[in-house]
Design goal:
By secondary structure, the chain is an alpha/beta fold. The chain has 11 helices and 17 strands. A hairpin with a 2-residue loop joins strand 13 and strand 14. Helix 6 runs parallel beside helix 7. Bound molecules: pyridoxal-5'-phosphate (PLP).
Length: about 400
């Protein structure tokens, strides 16, 4: 008899993985398959906003699942309006309109399309070190040629230096009447925690207003209360025309959206989605907002974030500590290049990174002082460990 070769399907290998299998999580902690506990200052890439498996969140999503898991946007789904009302109130954008989708890239893709529909123009201004996602337009406005496929390359995107008001002015002076939108993160995340200056955001606002272009505030990573304000762009006291949101919005449930200023009008069929705004996603997003409000998590993010930053600034080996609230980055010198790995494998603490040498902290907004103190003690220990070992 011929022996049949058994083939097992493999995962498409696109992620460098930490050799850790996570099986359980609660609050700011996660556990691996051997029961080892980790402090999570990464939140699965800024996604865990109210803490892992928060009881109110679990209850609300479970109740919704038992009632109605899914129906499409061909019928009325009042839970979408409930979400829009709550989001309008907490973000201070009651007059805006909400379009729901499923991921950060999709939110930016729709924001850019809408800006082009609205203005009838093609050109988009984006900035160096930006990251806006991996779908076609979102990746075209992302400053990383390595992830832009040939089919995504377009002459319609103009990259300008981040925080450079003069070059922005010059660009608008030369071709302002062709610019559909400016897209900018309030704090660049993947780019390494680079804070947009308030005057830079104000300049974007005034130039967009003057030239009829759309100001898109990518709040996928820096939004949803993480910085102590609902949108980090709010620190500049300006209103964008569109805010894109994802990550913390669902505390792990895939849900995203854009908030759209009232002067941008919709037409049937202009945007659309099968899964966006489904009842389960809305229940998850509502649970997140309810917990942010009831536990005052934006205040907590600001207070705890300020504390972490001032403590990190007192560690001389760490350079350029920066960020706002619980979106913090710092540069690690070459002599400590394994610090992030050592925090993970020696101290059981998850942190994020940005190439080439930045550690990023993106914990739950409910992070408490005890866990911060544990982190600070651990990082000091790891910084001094090599010297002790010499
Ligand atoms: C600022 C920003 N925009 C957009 C995205 C894309 O989001 P998603 O991975 O959900 O498509 C990301 C993801 O890291 C991001 O940080």
């Amino acid at each position: 008899m011929l022996s049949k070769k058994i083939t097992v399907m493999k995962l498409f290998d696109v992620y460098p993985l930490n050799n850790i299998t996570v099986v359980k999580a609660k609050g700011s902690y996660i556990w691996d398959e051997n029961g080892l506990q980790y402090l999570d200052l990464y939140g699965g890439h800024a996604v865990i906003s109210i803490g892992h498996t928060h009881p109110h969140y679990v209850q609300r999503v479970t109740e919704q699942l038992n009632k109605l898991g899914f129906y499409s946007n061909s019928v009325k789904l009042p839970i979408q309006e409930e979400l829009a009302t709550k989001l309008g109130k907490i973000s201070g954008r009651e007059t805006y309109q909400l379009f729901l989708c499923n991921s950060g890239a999709e939110a930016n893709e729709n924001a850019l399309k809408l800006a082009s529909f609205h203005t009838g123009r093609k050109k988009i201004v984006a900035f160096t070190k930006s990251f806006h996602g991996r779908t076609s337009l979102a990746v075209a406005v992302t400053d990383n040629p390595a992830i832009v496929a040939p089919v995504n390359q377009t002459p319609n995107v103009i990259f300008l230096p981040f925080n450079d008001e003069a070059s922005l002015e010059a660009c608008f002076r030369a071709q302002g009447n062709e610019i559909a939108a400016v897209i900018v993160e309030g704090i660049q995340g993947v780019g390494g925690i680079n804070v947009a200056r308030e005057s830079f955001l104000q300049k974007i606002r005034s130039l967009c207003t003057e030239h009829g272009s759309v100001f898109i505030a990518d709040s996928v990573q820096c939004g949803y209360g993480r910085t102590g304000k609902f949108f980090s762009h709010d620190y500049a006291n300006v209103d964008a025309d569109i805010y894109s949101m994802a990550k913390g919005m669902g505390n792990g449930f895939p849900v995203a959206g854009i908030l759209i200023a009232p002067h941008l009008h919709s037409k049937h069929g202009m945007l659309g989605t099968t899964f966006g705004g489904n009842p389960l996603a809305c229940a998850a997003a509502l649970a997140v907002l309810e917990v942010i409000e009831s536990e005052k998590l934006m205040d907590n993010a600001k207070r705890i974030g300020d504390h972490i930053q001032s403590e990190l600034k007192s560690i001389p080996e760490l350079q350029n500590v920066r960020g706002k609230g619980l979106m913090i980055g710092f540069d690690v010198p070459e002599s400590l290049k394994d610090l992030r790995k050592n925090l993970l494998f020696n101290q059981n603490i998850f942190t994020g990174e940005a190439k080439p040498n930045v550690i990023r902290l993106l914990p739950s907004l409910a992070l408490n002082k005890k866990d911060v103190d544990q982190f600070l003690e651990s990082i000091r220990e790891e910084i001094h460990a090599p010297a002790l070992n010499q």
